[in-house]
Specification:
Low-confidence stretches: 1-24, 338-342
CATH architecture of the largest domain: Orthogonal Bundle
Number of helices: 6
CATH class of the largest domain: Mainly Alpha
Strand content: 15-25%
Order of helices and strands: HEEEEHHHHEEEEEEHEE
Amino acid sequence: MHKKIIPVLVIAVVLIVVSLQFFKKEVPTVFHGTAEMEQINISAEAAGIVKEIKVAEGQIIDKDAIIAVIDSPESEIRSQQAELGMQSASNEMERVNIGAREEELAAQKAAVKQMKAQADAAVVALKQGEVALKQAEINTATALETYNHKDKLYRDALALFKDGSISKQDLDTAELGMITARNVYETAKANIEGAKAQLDILRAQQESYKQQLEAANQKLLMLTNGAVNTAKTAAELGIKQAETNYELSKLSLSKTEIRSGIRGVVGSVNYSIGEYVLPGSAVATVANTDNLWVKIFVPEGLLPQLKLNQEVAVHSDFIKENIKGKIVNISNSAEYTPMNIITKDDRERLVYSVKIQIMDNTDNIKAGMLLDVQLK
């Protein structure tokens, strides 16, 4: 009788072990996500009417590629004036030893008066530019507060949606409000940069008019006193001023060509030929193909096996080649946390976001493409 009991016990133990192995929860090693790209706004540095659009949506462009050309007659006129100023300063140097006539004195006094009026106007314009910058900073602060509020409403709606308390439409409405507020905030930040760029131009113009006024006064003094040394000083100052104006005009003219600061894919062209743009306006949006990543969410139990800069395998159903990825960020906080963590099963519901940088095949991967990440 005892001999029959022993085999039965052995079979029971084996069945228990097999059952435990069968019901044991295995931690997955393949996770899914969508490819994402960094989006860069290519902004105008000068005001004017769009004369040419050099790119199209979806086009791959290199760094420094021309996105659009701004028609700025003011910049062209300044360049022509600067060239004439260079020639005039050179001619003046040749005339330093010629005595002044009454007509020259009258003309120079008129030039001094005109230069002073321009210098005074430049001071007023600079103050207006400072006011515009201050207003842009206030608008940005207001936009940030609105965005933070909308972002909180969206996160609260997301939690309510997961609990089944609100509909998908309500969630989409909250998300749209958050995205709209974020876009307004990004535009406000761009306007600050545009106001700063405009303020730099106004400061340069003020300095330019100040130097021109000084040069005009020196020339008037030279004509009045007839001193050779004063004449040479004024002529040299005039040449230096003409050279400064010429470089400033070239800088202003170069800003009529809006260039991309990165290599990438044109996501959107935001202006059309004939439209007027202001400094800081986002003329186009370019996706940075050199900064491509996929974000996945892993369970808490897998975190000890993950390290920064760890290489992982990335796969796509539409790309035959192997894709190499690298872990560049591991979230410090959990997401989708249960309201009350009581049991071990509740803890297993915690997930952490992991950002995977795509290291190769970036030309074949598009934003929004589904990717599989093999962690082990």
